[in-house]
Amino acid sequence: MNRLAQLDVRYVWHPFTQMRDWMRQEPIVIVRGRGPVLWDAHGRKYLDANASIWTNLHGHQHPALNRALRAQLQKIAHSSALGLANEPAALLAAQLVRLARLREQKDARPRLNNPALEKVFFSDDGSTALEVALKLAYEASRRLGRSGPKPRFLGLEGAYHGDTVGAVSLGHIDLFHRTYAGLLFKSDAVMAPYCYRCPFNRAQPERADARQYRQCQWQCLGQLENRLGRARRRGQPYAAFVFEPLMQGAAGMIPQPHGWLRQAAALAREHGALLIADEVMTGFGRTGPLFACHREGVQPDFLALAKGLTGGYLPMAATLTTLEIFNAFLGEYAEFKTFFHGHSYTGNQLGAAAALASLGLLQKPGAAALRQRLARHLAGALQTLWDLPQVGDIRQEGLVAGIELVKDWRSREPFPLADRAGFRVCEAMARRGVLTRPIGNVLVLMPPYCVSPQQIEQMVEVLRVSVQEVLGKEPGNTPRRSR
């Protein structure tokens, strides 16, 4: 075991990691990267197939981001946002507000009363971005008379919105959250549109994304409407509906069928709930449009951004909201209506400089078209996985893909989580030079935008061979669904 690995094993406590397993073997120690490639302390080379846990948009050591950081370092690295302003944070806030403007879709149904997002509150990461939205929605709802004295929140089953106490309270993954139940406030959950395992989907398994062959009557939306209606009739309407647009990340890369988001947003607005969109993973072009909500013409009251905001270089987050929410906190000093919340590194100059450079790359001519071509290439490569009997569902939005592993595709029977099926496949992938991390039994591919078509094919082929090695080499008789 090399010296760096020894130091890590002796001193570092890793997130979401059973450290007893970690300490049994030499960890991979990353020492450098360029583009979509990483190198470890032994000089071994890997493809970064999950964009360094969903953060890295443009690749490692990108010259434009490096230049932006060097230029900012010649000025100042950080000064407080408490009582002071700074140049890159002001420029970044203006850019985010401009990019978040939504053009109304005149022929879209149902019609939505979309607000304008005009104010930006900076913080540090996805958890804090949601924490800001939660606190603002809670207090603004009381001040504006939108809810009772104890505003309540509604989210989706399987939701994950971060690890601060407020963000955990909005989440609904029992494995992650039950330990902290005594610390949390209660929030409610309604079924997510998980077509592959939906109890209302009458379709038999096919070799295609379950959204394509589902047979249902949108019961998931019916349950959302019932829950919102019951709360309102009791005189306790929800202060806000919290969701990840287009795809739930930590739930297992669960994509929403086309039309769900717009209809769900309309129902929430109809029943008086504010919309909190968690775009920590889905934003900045990852799922297609710059902001995932805009795919279906939805503009939330709170837009929470992080991860890719700085292109994966530095921790930084932003929560965008409306003038109505902002004005609810205005008053004379002695009224103490101030938003009493903050972070030491709020509006950090280095983070803001990197974010401005990243936004510039996202807006370059041809950048969106390139992402679309890569997404199509990824979709084509993923088709080769349907021959594996252990592949139950393949779900993709833009440059995000989730491959759900099952014992057999015909039965959809899952592997027990204790079997570590997803982890064992990812370990086999690492031995072949591709790094990613599973969500339970779901394998995730989420490459940086600088990846080549050939590297995408390599990622998928390594995944395929690793599934065969770990879970069985016999391909099933699994003809693909005709299109």
Describe the structure.
Helix 5 runs parallel beside helix 13. This protein starts with a helix and ends in a 12-residue tail after the last helix. The strands form four sheets. It has a seven-stranded mixed β-sheet with strand order 4-12-11-10-7-5-6, with helices on both faces. The protein has a four-stranded mixed β-sheet with strand order 1-2-3-16. It folds into two domains: 3-61 and 369-471, Aspartate Aminotransferase, domain 1 (Alpha-Beta Complex); 75-362, 3-Layer(aba) Sandwich (Aspartate Aminotransferase, domain 2), CATH 3.40.640.10. The longest helix is centred in the C-terminal third of the chain and has 19 residues, at 453-471. The chain has helices spanning 3-11, 19-22, 51-54, 63-73, 87-99, 126-143, 165-170, 174-177, 210-213, 219-233, 260-270, 323-327, 349-362, 367-382, 421-431, 453-471; strands at residues 30-34, 37-40, 45-48, 119-123, 153-156, 188-190, 240-243, 247-248, 254-255, 274-278, 302-305, 317-321, 391-397, 400-408, 413-414, 434-435, 442-445. A hairpin with a 2-residue loop joins strand 1 and strand 2. Helix content is 34%, strand content 15%. It is built from 16 helices and 17 strands. The protein is an alpha/beta fold and 483 residues long.
Unreliable stretches, pLDDT < 50, 5 or more residues? 474-483
The major β-sheet equals: 7 strands, mixed
The CATH architecture of the largest domain? 3-Layer(aba) Sandwich
Mean pLDDT: 95
- CATH fold category name of the largest domain: Aspartate Aminotransferase, domain 2
Number of helices: 16
Please tally the β strands and state the result.
17
Structural class: alpha/beta
CATH class of the largest domain: Alpha Beta
For the record, the count of structural domains works out to 2
The rounded Rg comes to 22 Å
Helical fraction: 25-40%
Strand % is 5-15%
